[in-house]
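Reply to dn_fold:

You asked what the input looked like. This is it:
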Amino acid sequence: MKTFARGDCRAEIVRRLRLVRADSVRRWGTMTPHQMVCHCADACRMARGEVAPADIASLSTRTVIKWIALYAPMRWPEGIQTVAEFDQRTAGSPPGDFAADVAALETLLGQIGPRDGGAPWPRHPIFGRMSQRAWLRWAYLHMDHHLRQFGA
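and this is what came back:
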Protein backbone atom coordinates (compact mmCIF):
# COMPACT_ATOMS: atom_id res chain seq x y z
CA MET A 1 0.00 0.00 0.00
CA LYS A 2 1.40 3.38 -1.01
CA THR A 3 1.70 5.84 1.82
CA PHE A 4 3.85 8.76 2.94
CA ALA A 5 5.04 6.51 5.77
CA ARG A 6 7.42 5.15 3.12
CA GLY A 7 10.22 7.36 1.84
CA ASP A 8 10.13 5.72 -1.59
CA CYS A 9 6.49 6.76 -2.01
CA ARG A 10 7.27 10.37 -1.08
CA ALA A 11 10.20 10.31 -3.55
CA GLU A 12 7.90 8.97 -6.28
CA ILE A 13 5.46 11.82 -5.70
CA VAL A 14 8.23 14.45 -5.82
CA ARG A 15 9.60 12.91 -9.03
CA ARG A 16 6.13 13.05 -10.60
CA LEU A 17 5.54 16.60 -9.34
CA ARG A 18 8.66 17.71 -11.20
CA LEU A 19 7.03 16.52 -14.44
CA VAL A 20 4.19 19.03 -14.11
CA ARG A 21 4.67 22.24 -16.08
CA ALA A 22 2.76 25.50 -15.93
CA ASP A 23 1.28 24.62 -19.33
CA SER A 24 0.49 20.95 -18.60
CA VAL A 25 -2.92 19.97 -19.94
CA ARG A 26 -5.49 18.82 -17.39
CA ARG A 27 -7.35 15.60 -18.01
CA TRP A 28 -10.34 16.61 -15.86
CA GLY A 29 -11.54 19.33 -13.53
CA THR A 30 -11.09 23.08 -13.70
CA MET A 31 -7.79 23.70 -11.90
CA THR A 32 -4.77 24.92 -13.78
CA PRO A 33 -1.47 23.18 -13.00
CA HIS A 34 -0.43 26.17 -10.91
CA GLN A 35 -3.68 26.15 -8.95
CA MET A 36 -3.19 22.41 -8.32
CA VAL A 37 0.29 23.02 -6.91
CA CYS A 38 -1.07 25.68 -4.53
CA HIS A 39 -4.07 23.49 -3.63
CA CYS A 40 -1.76 20.60 -2.72
CA ALA A 41 0.46 22.93 -0.69
CA ASP A 42 -2.62 24.11 1.23
CA ALA A 43 -3.55 20.46 1.84
CA CYS A 44 -0.06 19.77 3.22
CA ARG A 45 -0.41 22.75 5.55
CA MET A 46 -3.70 21.26 6.73
CA ALA A 47 -2.04 17.89 7.41
CA ARG A 48 0.64 19.71 9.41
CA GLY A 49 -2.05 21.49 11.46
CA GLU A 50 -1.13 24.95 10.12
CA VAL A 51 -4.59 25.65 8.67
CA ALA A 52 -7.94 24.27 9.75
CA PRO A 53 -10.71 24.36 7.17
CA ALA A 54 -14.34 24.23 8.26
CA ASP A 55 -15.53 20.80 9.35
CA ILE A 56 -18.03 19.47 6.82
CA ALA A 57 -17.75 15.81 7.89
CA SER A 58 -20.86 13.70 8.18
CA LEU A 59 -21.40 10.25 9.64
CA SER A 60 -21.03 8.66 6.19
CA THR A 61 -17.86 10.59 5.23
CA ARG A 62 -16.24 9.86 8.62
CA THR A 63 -16.89 6.13 8.33
CA VAL A 64 -17.77 4.32 5.11
CA ILE A 65 -16.57 6.91 2.59
CA LYS A 66 -13.30 7.45 4.48
CA TRP A 67 -12.59 3.71 4.47
CA ILE A 68 -13.40 3.40 0.76
CA ALA A 69 -11.32 6.48 -0.14
CA LEU A 70 -8.28 5.33 1.83
CA TYR A 71 -8.26 1.55 1.54
CA ALA A 72 -10.46 0.30 -1.33
CA PRO A 73 -8.41 -0.77 -4.37
CA MET A 74 -9.69 1.97 -6.67
CA ARG A 75 -8.61 5.41 -7.84
CA TRP A 76 -10.42 8.47 -6.60
CA PRO A 77 -13.07 9.65 -9.06
CA GLU A 78 -12.57 12.72 -11.20
CA GLY A 79 -14.28 15.95 -10.28
CA ILE A 80 -14.35 15.70 -6.49
CA GLN A 81 -15.18 19.10 -5.01
CA THR A 82 -12.68 20.55 -2.56
CA VAL A 83 -13.44 22.63 0.51
CA ALA A 84 -13.62 26.39 -0.09
CA GLU A 85 -10.45 27.08 1.89
CA PHE A 86 -8.42 25.03 -0.61
CA ASP A 87 -10.06 26.28 -3.79
CA GLN A 88 -7.60 28.67 -5.41
CA ARG A 89 -10.47 30.49 -7.18
CA THR A 90 -12.00 31.49 -3.83
CA ALA A 91 -10.15 31.25 -0.51
CA GLY A 92 -7.12 29.06 -1.25
CA SER A 93 -3.54 30.33 -1.46
CA PRO A 94 -3.22 32.31 -4.68
CA PRO A 95 -0.64 31.19 -7.25
CA GLY A 96 2.52 33.31 -7.39
CA ASP A 97 5.67 32.22 -9.20
CA PHE A 98 5.23 28.68 -10.55
CA ALA A 99 8.78 27.46 -9.83
CA ALA A 100 8.72 28.95 -6.31
CA ASP A 101 5.33 27.39 -5.58
CA VAL A 102 6.52 23.97 -6.79
CA ALA A 103 9.63 24.29 -4.59
CA ALA A 104 7.45 25.24 -1.60
CA LEU A 105 5.24 22.19 -2.22
CA GLU A 106 8.31 19.93 -2.43
CA THR A 107 9.45 21.26 0.94
CA LEU A 108 6.02 20.66 2.47
CA LEU A 109 5.88 17.13 1.05
CA GLY A 110 9.18 16.41 2.78
CA GLN A 111 7.58 17.42 6.07
CA ILE A 112 4.66 14.97 5.82
CA GLY A 113 5.73 11.73 7.41
CA PRO A 114 5.60 9.67 10.58
CA ARG A 115 5.65 11.73 13.78
CA ASP A 116 7.64 10.68 16.80
CA GLY A 117 5.95 10.29 20.15
CA GLY A 118 2.41 10.00 18.85
CA ALA A 119 1.93 13.72 18.27
CA PRO A 120 -1.73 14.37 17.40
CA TRP A 121 -2.86 14.90 13.84
CA PRO A 122 -5.51 17.50 12.98
CA ARG A 123 -9.07 16.70 11.99
CA HIS A 124 -9.71 16.29 8.28
CA PRO A 125 -12.58 18.53 7.07
CA ILE A 126 -14.37 15.63 5.35
CA PHE A 127 -13.08 12.48 7.08
CA GLY A 128 -12.93 13.83 10.65
CA ARG A 129 -10.41 12.34 13.07
CA MET A 130 -7.73 10.30 11.34
CA SER A 131 -4.84 8.26 12.63
CA GLN A 132 -1.28 8.82 11.49
CA ARG A 133 -1.66 5.77 9.25
CA ALA A 134 -4.76 7.26 7.62
CA TRP A 135 -3.20 10.73 7.19
CA LEU A 136 -0.09 9.32 5.53
CA ARG A 137 -2.20 7.17 3.21
CA TRP A 138 -4.41 10.19 2.41
CA ALA A 139 -1.35 12.34 1.65
CA TYR A 140 -0.15 9.86 -0.97
CA LEU A 141 -3.58 9.39 -2.53
CA HIS A 142 -4.34 13.11 -2.65
CA MET A 143 -1.09 13.88 -4.45
CA ASP A 144 -1.48 10.88 -6.76
CA HIS A 145 -4.99 12.03 -7.70
CA HIS A 146 -3.85 15.53 -8.66
CA LEU A 147 -0.69 14.42 -10.44
CA ARG A 148 -2.76 12.02 -12.57
CA GLN A 149 -5.04 14.99 -13.29
CA PHE A 150 -2.10 16.53 -15.17
CA GLY A 151 -0.65 13.35 -16.64
CA ALA A 152 2.24 12.98 -14.19
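The helical segments are 7-17, 33-47, 59-62, 64-71, 98-110, 132-149.
Hope that clears it up.
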